Amino acid sequence: MPIVNIDGADMIDRAIAWHVRLPDATPEVWAAFVDWLEADPAHAAAYDRIAAADRALDARAFPAPAPLAGNDNDACAASPRRRGWWLAGGGAVAAGVAALLAITLLPTRADPYVVATAAGERRSVDLPDGSRIELSGGTRLRLDRAAPRFAALEAGEALFHVRHDPGAPFVVVADGRTVQDVGTVFNVASDGHHLSVAVAEGAVVYEPKGVAVRLNPGDALQATSGATNFVRSTVAPREVGGWREGVLTFTSEPLGEVAAALERLYGFHIILSPGLSARPFTGMVRFSGTADRDVPHLAELIGATWRRDKQGWVLAEGAGR
Question: In CATH, what number does 112-239 get?
Fold first, then answer.
């Protein structure tokens, strides 16, 4: 059987080093680890294989010993011995991993998985650590069983209920930016062009390795792709994640974002005229989920005309507020 190649010994050594460090990692180390994973898809593949190899070696080389009479601690002796074996030396570890891979062909990227919702659909995901994520419609979230404290929001909107762990902060990556929890309920939305973060409970740190902005309950932030600046605002904590009850809050956001939010949440297809799409909108609006009621209501709020054709709802500039 062929040996699986992990693209060089250096990458093996780095993956092993990260695997050894993570159990006792600080928030700064976790942020550096995420940066390393995202720098090259091969890094994540190498780490997945090392983690799988570690689990396999643990089961083969260090089976749980039979308990000895009068010594309740012997049953827990395998884990420290395995950790000491990993720390014995990079060359020996790499050789052991390579030998195991020669025996067993490990899958590439076996642990990551995607949770997605269609427009108008909602879903809740419970994570092994006790955290929970509520997904709005039109949302795509990438998770990893090997790294349960990490999530990548590729599109859409999600409300995160995070069980805080000071030794392993929960990290969310969206639109190329990083949001790190400090014991939190927070909402993140991204369409690949604009990112918004709002906090209901606890706190998060936006871009912990960059500007490191702390957001507390009631704080919100909006950023645009490719821009280094951002806009801070406030929101009532009870309104964070309001999309679950049909309440949407916007702060100087383009009407195109409002239309995108409605399409995600309810499946409405709204076409805006060019001049209307970029107009900023601020307000809190309650929607029912019925297009015949909600779209004319939105048009009235923004002073637009509306009509319906085969493609969907069309809103254009008109005399209004």
Answer: 2.60.120.1440
Matching residue, tokens 């280094």: 228
pTM: 0.61
| Pairing mode, strands 270-272 and 312-317 | parallel
Q: Where are the domains of the chain?
A: 9-103, 112-239, 246-317
Tens of pLDDT, residues 29-42: 776 777 777 777 77
Q: How is domain 246-317 classified at the architecture level of CATH? A: 3-Layer(bab) Sandwich (3.55)
Q: What is the pLDDT of residue 91?
A: 44
Cα angle 19-25-28, degrees, rounded to a multiple of 5: 115
